[in-house]
Design a protein that fits this description.
two-stranded antiparallel sheet; mainly alpha; 2 domains
Amino acid sequence: MKPAKFSKYILCILLLISTVIGGFFFFGGKVLSVGNAQIPIYSDLFLYLLVALVGGALAVAVFALIARLAERFRRSPKEAVRSVIGFFILAFILFFCWLCGSGTLLHLQGYSGVYNTPCWLRLTDMFLYSTYFLMGVAVLLIVGFYVARKIR
């Protein structure tokens, strides 16, 4: 089977699973009440899907990085070092965003879960800050390349 055909099937399967679980989440019937907040019944299933998709994407990215590194290292060690610079830049951004995060416990009425700890709070802040930073970089690059193309 060709890789393009295989990836097409994987994409269709993931889209189908995401659509079904999204339908369960948004149209799943009853709503649990916790304090004054209303939470859909299938929130856990939706979050498990998101964790699985992000974990799978990270695993594929790390595998591709290692495979590309090994391939380039066979050809030219200098190219191999250049290929992992982006990974280390991203790791530095995530580490810096982790340091910027706050570990101050939140006082949430009616919540007695295990995720109100400094580690999870800093991790959440890291995801938010890194998303803001990377979206800002993407917008700046889009504008910069547009301006550079108009100048030429």
